[in-house]
Amino acid sequence: MQIYLDYSATTPPRSEVITKMQEVLTQNWGNPSSLHEWGQRSATLVEQARMQVASLIKAPAESIIFTSGGTEADNLAVMGVVQTYRKPQHLVISSVEHSAVAQPVSLLEKKGWTVTRLPVDSLGRVNPEDLEAALQPNTVLVSVIYGQSEVGTLQPVEALGQIARNHGVLFHTDAVQVAGRLPINVQQLPVDLLSISSHKIYGPQGAGALYVRSGVELEPLISGGGQELRLRSGTQAVPAIAGFGVAAELAEAELTTETPRLIGLRDRLFEQLADTPHLKPTGSRRHRLPHHVSFCISNGGGRVTGKTLVRQLNLAGIGISAGSACHSGKLSPSPILLAMGYTDSAALGGIRLTLGKDTTVADIDWTAMVLKQILKRLMPEPELSRV
Question: CATH for 15-251, among 3.40.190.290, 3.90.78.10, 3.40.640.10, 3.40.50.1100?
Fold first, then answer.
């Protein structure tokens, strides 16, 4: 039995997406910047996809800038704003950002930018009052992730964005894990910039998008041919973008049925593992991504890590992921769990099980049983002494 439970890492491209990409590769392979028929057919496909992606987040089509993925979209949001200033200013991010935001900001800090990293509570959530207190006269951008990919916590983006807007500060959110899983309406949400990714919603890898609210000024990271409103030069990857569009359209159509189904499966897995020794849920249960289940291993003393469980479950035909990072063969504690107050030892023991459109009740039940057996074998309970 093979069970894939790592949908937050990537999702399998849908058959409709593959069919569309094959059509583009074989019939509509022209350069969309060319004026002849071949190029204009491709240009039409790009604009159709732009409308499909825009519709997913209720955005005007002209506000969607195609990128190579969520990482580039995040970088364009942060660096695009920063490069409009001649002198270093002040930035605010959360302490649980994806590395696609955290690392560029760290580089900016080395170049003289002042950075405030908002703390989170034990569930990984930012307190809006902390943002209010952190804003300074020279704050130019706030970036807070919408749904945390490692622990599943949803941030109060509406409240945070409104605070930023009230102070005239741009607000960006990485919605890579949220788009296609929860409704997003950028006409109502107080965001200026929002990142999404194709391969998180059953589209191809290599495509993403940044929503840019009208009037927001950015400097491009890549210069050249001036594609994507001069914000992302380079010939568009038409097959990937067209596939992205199809995936976005399908995700929007299925949102009202798929989201509650995933929530039911998510809660079932949490419940089945609730009394499992050594497993402690991480993140917020109330404010949570619908497809996301996460734990850390307690009382393991670092002997049994999240990566240990990933390997053991893989041997059983089940794919999950761990939060800790491996650099040159040495494990590092998860910075997300550390920011949430976990010890170094506990922060080595994070695991994430994320569900998708092919996940069934049988998959959930089997996974819970196998995980319990693995933990029992790796971390047996001490026997009671006999009288």
Answer: 3.40.640.10
